[in-house]
Amino acid sequence: MNARNPMPSRALLAAIERQRRRVWGLCYRMTGLRSEADDLSQEAIARAIEREAALAHREGLEGWLFRIATSVCLDHLRRRKIERRATELADPLPTPELSAADADPEAAVILRDDVRFAVVVALQHLPPRQRAALILHEVLDRPLAGVARALGTNPSAAKQLVVRARRALVAARVHTDVDVPVDRAVVDRLVHAIETRSVEAFTALLADDVWGVTDGGGRVRVSTKPVFGARAVGRLWAAANGRQVLPVAARARVLNGEPAVVVTLPTAGDAAMASIHLETRRGRIVALRVVRDPEKLANLELIAAEAG
Hints:
By secondary structure, the chain is of the alpha+beta class. The chain has two domains: 10-88 and 124-171, PhyR, sigma-like (SL) domain (Butyryl-CoA Dehydrogenase, subunit A, domain 3), CATH 1.20.140; 184-307, Nuclear Transport Factor 2, Chain: A (Roll), CATH 3.10.450. It has helices at residues 10-31, 34-50, 61-80, 105-112, 117-123, 128-139, 144-151, 155-171, 184-196, 199-203, 230-243, 301-307; strands at residues 206-215, 227-228, 249-255, 258-265, 271-281, 284-291. A six-stranded mixed beta sheet has the order 2-1-6-5-4-3. Helix 1 packs parallel to helix 3 (61-80) and helix 6 runs antiparallel to helix 7 (144-151). It is elongated and about 65 Å long. The relative contact order is 0.12.
């Protein structure tokens, strides 16, 4: 290997193998997009191999990897400079349906680290440095000193970033009193309401303070603002139900580590037309996040096909 393509040490390769999934998870949480997480995690690993000689050994290889991945993500977000729409959601993340008994180690990382859809979406509306600080400290269990090194600041400033990020998540309506994971019985009742096209069955599931948002990605015509209250959410659902001419199928699937609903069009080869992500409390739906953007749904057809 020459200087441009250095041979990585066995220790670094082992650290990469151990932490590859978590590096990818960091990039996914930072961007909300699977394709960007793929590219950025690969770039971070390549950069770590290239710069191993500069490793500060007091930090450790894992901390080094997370620091580089954080830097890669922040650089990318600075270049992107796209203001997120109020209704913009994240890419749904297919995850295996696992129990504690049969979870393999790599897949268990997804379930152990919080990739709940509500949390990933809310993270996207935080300033990038707050987002990074919260992910590093709260999800990846990095000490404040490690967070500070990753962000080029001091531990006191890193702590303030984490505190502000927590407050911002509360302001972004990330519920702290919801079921984790989502109540599967409520998900099953929603599937029934969709397949029977029953407005009454749907509205019976809604909490009084429910709110909903739909992301069409600018490609599907949807409401451009979140909707608040059971009456407003019910009216919107009834209107959409009335406009839907073709028959639909609905199935419960594990997305982002918890039950969600994938709605498909059987007459169009089971193409996914929506993924519905719920938050539940005491047998009722308190939040609905609906992905209608065809690009975000691109890989969900396979899930529906496997279910058939």
